[in-house]
From TrEMBL:
Signal peptide: none
Domain of life per record: Bacteria
Coiled-coil features, chain-numbered ranges: none
Reaction(s) catalysed by this chain's protein: 2,5-dichlorocyclohexa-2,5-dien-1,4-diol + NAD(+) = 2,5-dichlorohydroquinone + NADH + H(+)
Pfam families hit by this protein: adh_short (PF00106)
Family assignment from sequence similarity: Belongs to the short-chain dehydrogenases/reductases (SDR) family.
Name of the protein in its database record: SDR family oxidoreductase
Amino acid sequence: MSKGEFAGLVVVVTGAASGLGRAASIRFAAEGARVCLVDLNNDGLIETMRRIAEAGGESVIYAGDLGDAANCAKAVETAIEAFGRMDVLCNVAGILRFHALADVTADVWARLFSANVTAPFFMIQAAMPHLIETKGNVVNVVSTAAFLGQAYTAPYAATKAALLSLTKSLAMEFMHAPVRINALAPGGMLTEMVQTLQFPAAADQSLIARYIGIRPPSQPEDIVEPLMFLASDRARSVHGVCYCADNGITAG
């Protein structure tokens, strides 16, 4: 695909095997981008790649655990070796789990921070020289949990608040560089991951209702729209901010 808003550009999307990452990857390809699809789920990556190819797009895949900094470097290398440049990094991959405080183990805590904070950090570190060269940008997907206390999500919420702070701090660090770093905070989305989650057995539903929201959850394709904006040249004056696409959850 040679036409479209992202024609000639190279986009790396983590979490591309499903959900928002898959929807974003397909849309970037439809807008002319060549896409490097990154995820731990190789079968899911192959399916996303198939859908892009069927629509006439071009993509490559890298499967690996991004909690390992070496895999982050390899993911970026895959994009550079395949397409010769990198213009956009979308850190979409993440893990959501619900736990009562007493049920959070050290392994659960470490896994959430590995996927939701460590991986985006080292993806940005590996990508930054290439993004500066192309005057590109980063979009980190956080969550409304970065702004609101949400019962039974303490470790997850902590990771998303950390990723939001990371976004703003790196935006300041690279204020004089030709690169933009922003975040996007969705509310509830109807993804495979969310639909299979379970709350603790004794969870207080009145506390959960405080952050579920009044309006229905979004489809991943709905959240793609603000993500595309932040990744595009239309957002050339947007740096170091977080856009909420949460159906009003953080409004009150």
